[in-house]
Amino acid sequence: MANPTAAMLVVGDEILSGRTRDANMHHLASRLTETGIDLNEVRIISDDHEAIVEAVEDLSRGYDHLFTSGGIGPTHDDITADAVAAAMKAPIGVRDDALAVLKAHYDRQGTEINDARRRMARIPDGATLIDNPISAAPGFTLRNVHVMAGVPAIFQAMVGSLLPTLTGGKPLRSVSLRIAHGEGDIAEALGALANALPDVSFGSYPFIQNGLYGTNIVARSSDPTALETAVDRLVERFPDAQL
Amino acid sequence: MANPTAAMLVVGDEILSGRTRDANMHHLASRLTETGIDLNEVRIISDDHEAIVEAVEDLSRGYDHLFTSGGIGPTHDDITADAVAAAMKAPIGVRDDALAVLKAHYDRQGTEINDARRRMARIPDGATLIDNPISAAPGFTLRNVHVMAGVPAIFQAMVGSLLPTLTGGKPLRSVSLRIAHGEGDIAEALGALANALPDVSFGSYPFIQNGLYGTNIVARSSDPTALETAVDRLVERFPDAQL
Question: Touching check for A108 and chain B: CB below 8 Å?
């Protein structure tokens, strides 16, 4: 059976303007690969209601899972929860269970829960809360859409709360080999190998070091035996390959 | 007049699997911001012909410019040029001008130009070549689609060759202020300010340091006067703000 498919949607003006580098994509990609869920697409869009609605409609239909990052805090630019509710045609309002979580957290801190903080309890009807062990304000899962925070430490904690509840497939394994030849020299042999071993995908990533061309070949498969065969064949064909 | 809009398409199994972090997005985002071209969307998709065709069709229609990164080398997984040609309904084949550039490069190196390397001269009819001062194999511009390499050093060199040929708008400027309060404390005042100054966009990015909550507020505008006003108001409202 094929692995479940997934897309990620990053809501982030600050990434599109070049101010910050996204860290959540790399974290989610690695964790999904371990879990056996295939991340097939990532979109990064700006903090714009219509853009979020359109992307959520499109990606939640196109993949088994959609993971979102960013835009669920208390400020005016935090519009993801409402946009996801609109895209999924679910009513949204302050929900008692989410408010109770926030209240307990702010009580412990001795902080008042004002209107801005109350907004973080806006959760669509029918959604399940995603635990946030760091700053309490929960994420949520609405059908196949998993809505999480953008702050990397909180995103990672939410991914940690969420992934054990999802059914994965076969983890995708990969082996990387470093070859002291440019891509142009190995392309033909590598293409023939890719044809001969359809259960393995071969990626080829050229590099230049000290003025010399080299290539990293990455073989990926969810079938450990096929991957072993691929490595044997690569080493046989390229005796200078370094694991 | 509004700035030109842009999208970026990253062709990259190796990013979706978590093996590598994308570096090209951050570089392009920064350079476009300086140039006055608004990057509104980034998509990362796998090395799959249909997926590339669909994304190129969609994004080249939706934005003034589409920049692509990755998949234009000599190996079997380099399929971007053909997919872009298919999406834009342009014929593609080995082109004499591109082949001449490659031949001159490999002659200097004393390397033979084999079939794999000849593939890098496959350029759609009507496209303009993008100069590659590092490894010769050119990128190309076909109408509003700019096709560039994935290796970061080469991508950056191609962006450097390309951007001076494009007409930009007003550079987007930004100012970042650090405030020693959590988002929940400043959300109301910040929202009011955002309403009062429609020519400035305010982003709010919470952080936790030594157990204390703080917020970075980023004000962005292509109007330097409006941006100055925004900073004055922010400092007035949040006297502890640090530039």
Answer: no
The model's confidence at residue B84, banded by pLDDT at 50, 70 and 90, is very high
Task: Kindly state whether residues A150 and A208 are assigned to the same domain.
Answer: no
**What is the pTM assigned to this prediction?**
0.92
Number of domains in chain A: 2
The angle at the Cα of A17, spanning A12 to A21, to the nearest 5 degrees, equals 65
Please identify, among A136, A165, A194, the residue that sits at the C-terminal boundary of a domain. Answer: A165
A25 contacts B44? CB cut-off 8 A: yes
Would you tell me how many other CB atoms lie within 10 Å of the CB of residue A93? 10
Chain A residues near residue B24 by CB distance under 8 angstroms: none
Q: Is the pLDDT of residue A55 over 90?
A: yes
Band (B52; pLDDT cuts 50, 70, 90): very high
Alpha-carbon gap, residue B238 to B13, rounded angstroms: 45
Quote ipTM for the complex: 0.91
Please report which helix (H) or strand (E) contains residue B105, including its range: helix B96-109
Instruction: Specify if B54 maps to a domain.
Output: yes
Query: Cβ contact (<8 Å) for A44 and B47?
Result: no
Residues A140-178: tens digit of each pLDDT: 999 999 999 999 999 999 999 999 999 989 888 999 999
Q: How many CB pairs under 8 A join A and B?
A: 196
Same domain, B84 and B125: yes
**Residue that terminates a domain, selected from B130, B165, B200:** B165
The stretch A112-124 carries a mean pLDDT of 94
Chain B residues 117-156 with CB within 8 Å of chain A: 117, 119-120, 134-135, 150-151, 153
CATH code of the domain in which A149 resides: 3.40.980.10
Contact (CB, 8 A) for A219 and A231: yes
Give the separation between CA A151 and CA B219, rounded to whole angstroms.
19
Side-chain-side CA neighbours of A198 within 13 Å: the count stands at: 0
Q: Does residue B14 sit in the same domain as residue B87?
A: yes
Beta-strand ranges (E) seen in chain B are: 5-11, 38-45, 65-69, 92-94, 122-124, 128-130, 139-142, 145-148, 173-179, 201-209, 212-221
Range of the domain at A189: 173-237
Please judge whether A29 and B17 are an interchain contact, meaning their C-beta atoms are less than 8 angstroms apart.
yes
Same domain, A86 and A179: no
Asked if residue A243 belongs to a domain, the reply is: no
